[in-house]
Design a protein that fits this description.
Protein name: Two-component response regulator
Strand order of the largest sheet: 1-2-4-5-6-7-8-9
Shape: globular
Helix content: 40-55%
CATH superfamily: EAL domain
Number of strands: 9
Strand content: 15-25%
Largest sheet: 8 strands, mixed, barrel
Keywords: Coiled coil, Phosphoprotein
Structural class: alpha/beta
CATH topology: TIM Barrel
Bound molecules: guanosine-5'-monophosphate, manganese (II) ion, sodium ion
Order of helices and strands: HEEEHHEHHEHHEEHHEHEH
Oligomer: single chain
């Protein structure tokens, strides 16, 4: 498999990089954190999105070393920003974990090692896990989530509504935050029903002591509807696209 060889080489040659998309508090307009988003700077093909290579990386198992690189790089970046004292308001760093990463045997040990190496306080790290990763093995997922929570690592359920949509299962898992998938936000003002579905998700999550992040916010109208529904955070092109580290850092300088 050519892509497999390419991905291995990319790791060795340090061709991966991270972009950072801000996550905004809807109440204050401040940056609450960033989501780290992987990019591959291919010597011939230019910048490649994870959608094009993560499925192959999952299949070959390369997602494990790539994912550990992402985690370390993201923790290092936040630590560097903290060391520069660029901001007063605490910022969190969100990192995506795929199904395979979430079920790797040494996940906790690997995370502990990265936290130790980077010296980032683990309460600033947020992990984004999909419903499918959790539902693949709910019992072991619950245990793993609890171990992460014991370390004060923040836990988000990503792309909510696209997987099992298991509203009835949510209470079983020790999660802090729910990210509503952008397909719901996209349709928010289309029908009364869409709005009511989002309202129901938000109400339930609040009952379970989870905060809500709306993904894919692209318009002022979506923003104001989400605010009126009590959604805490938003992420999307309306605020900012995923940014290069320098551009993300420049935004932080303006973060009151
Ligand atoms: O950034 P972009 O829209 O191209 O991302 C496409 C998909 O790739 C998204 O579903 C996102 O969650 C996923 N993704 C981005 N970065 C990472 C990463 O570092 N690890 C994993 N597992 N998935 C990622
Ligand atoms: O699956 P996940 O939520 O991690 O995917 C994040 C991806 O969503 C990023 O790759 C990013 O490029 C994309 N994204 C971020 N904001 C927007 C937006 O406002 N609109 C759309 N269509 N995609 C977005
Ligand atoms: Mn995500
Ligand atoms: Na998502």
């Amino acid at each position: 498999l050519e892509l497999d060889t390419d991905l291995r080489r990319a790791l060795h040659r340090e061709e991966f990089l991270l972009y950072y998309q801000p996550i905004i508090s809807l109440a204050t307009g401040r940056i609450n954190g960033f989501e780290a988003l992987l990019r591959w700077s291919h010597p011939q093909k230019g910048l490649i999105s994870p959608g094009e290579f993560i499925p192959a990386a999952e299949e070959t198992g390369l997602i494990i070393p790539i994912g550990l690189w992402v985690l370390k790089e993201a923790c290092q970046q936040l630590k560097a920003w903290q060391n520069q004292a660029l901001f007063k308001h605490p910022i969190k760093m969100s990192v995506n974990l795929s199904v395979k990463q979430f079920s790797q045997v040494n996940l906790i040990q690997n995370i502990d090692k990265i936290i130790l190496q980077t010296q980032l306080n683990s309460s600033y790290l947020k992990l984004e896990i999909t419903e499918s990763a959790i539902m693949e093995n709910p019992e072991s997922a619950t245990e793993l989530l609890q171990q992460l929570r014991d370390r004060e690592i923040q836990l988000s359920i990503d792309d909510f509504g696209t997987g099992y949509s298991s509203l009835s299962y949510l209470h079983r898992f020790p999660l802090h935050n729910l990210k509503i998938d952008r397909s719901f936000i996209h349709r928010i003002s289309e029908t009364r029903q869409n709005l009511e579905i989002i309202q129901a998700i938000i109400t339930l999550a609040h009952h379970l002591n989870m905060t809500i992040t709306a993904e894919g916010v692209e318009t002022a109208e979506q923003l104001s509807l989400l605010r009126s529904l009590g959604c805490e955070e938003g992420q999307g092109y309306y605020f900012a696209r995923p940014l290069e580290p320098n551009a993300a850092q420049a935004l932080l300088l303006d973060n009151p």
